[in-house]
Design a protein that fits this description.
There is one protein chain. By secondary structure, the protein is an alpha+beta fold. It has three domains: about 110 residues, no CATH class; about 120 residues, EIF_2_alpha (Alpha-Beta Plaits); about 180 residues. It is built from eleven helices and seven strands. Strands 1, 4, 5, 6 and 7 form a five-stranded antiparallel sheet that branches. The chain has a two-stranded antiparallel ribbon with strand order 2-3. Strand 2 and strand 3 form a beta hairpin. Helix 4 crosses helix 5 and helix 6 packs antiparallel against helix 9.
Amino acid sequence: MNGDLQHDGTPVARQTTMREFVAVVFRRKWIIIGLFVTVTATVLTIALTSPTVYVSSGRVLVKRGEQTSVLTSDRRIFDAWEQDLANEVELAKSQPVLAGVRKILEERAGEGTPPPPLNPGSIEVEVRGKSNVLAIGYVDGDPAVARQVCDALITAYLRYRQIEFGLPFPEKFFESEFAAVDADLQHYFRLRSRFTTDEHVVDMGEQVRNGMNRLTGLQQRRSELNDQVVEARAQVKLMREVGMESVVDLPDVGLAYSSDALLDLKRRIVEQRARLAQLRENYRDDAPVVVSTRGTLESLEGLLKNEVDQRIRLEESRIGVLEARLDMINAEIADLQGQLERMPGKELTLSEIDRQIEVLKTRYADLVAKSDLARINRHTSSELNVVLLSGAGPAVATNVRDVVRLALAPAFSLVVGVGLAFFIDGMDITVHHAGQAEEASEIPVLATLRERRKRA
């Protein structure tokens, strides 16, 4: 008799037996078999129809930050790690890099040979963990093409990154600055040379001192000439005021042209006058000897008068010469004073030109020092901001037909099919065995009859 009673007469809950479990499986066998066949066919179809693709990849280390100047080797480091590397990922897929990839592929293919096709969607770039390492790969059906394109992609990325973000030596800048400073220096050198030639400037300080000494000498010479002119004019005036009446008694006023002839004429006139006075004492005025002596005296006086007049004219000529020399000295003094008055302006202009030349020389020396420092820093510090860790490796298939993986899907489909069979069987209200009859009627089953199989 199936079913047991508790002490109070209520039936005990029955447990599902293995027989009933197997019965459910066999009763819902087509659901399990159908799901198994469907999953297996789908997996085999996908595995057999999917083409085999290969991926080649390489690794690149990105130095984060940027160099502040070619004169210093330090770098400005940024804290946004995710943002920096995300930018690098997109940069590796950017159009400039792809253009460089196409150019490299064309160069390597050579003339007359078409380069391998480049599909931007087949590029794979990812960050390796919490690091600054980028894995750059390329997927293609041909392993040789995958490796070739991956190598070109890494090369193009390195070139673009170094050219775009590096700080090469600013050769054009220094060349233009050197040329500009040299042109300014040549301009001021020519300006100074032209100024010193036109203004007759050699050594401004020495020229001022020489000019002052020369001016002092000219002023002293002018004073002496003035004294000589005044003295000569006084002598001429004195001779003219005394007159010829007392020419014999004319004192010796220090004429420049006095000679023994004039003194001899004076002496002879004095002697002739004394003789005429003696003769007048003894003879009459119309005596021949008196007349002859008076004629001789008159002749001597005429000679003396002519001699004096000639000496006065000579003295006046000498005064003219002295005045002409004085005018020349005055003109020279005026010219020298004008030059000395212009000296401060010339000195200021020349000092300004010299100052500009010194400034340009200092700037040129500073440019030379900065250029040398930039060259030293360029050759002693690394300018690379990306480092190739590993090149494009051999292409590896990405969809290998693994038997274990292919078998896992049908196996899981059996588990799912059994679960689905029990779920559907649980929703079926039809009574199939004694347990269900007891649950439905809440009456214990006393006996069961086995189902007789139909014979064909």
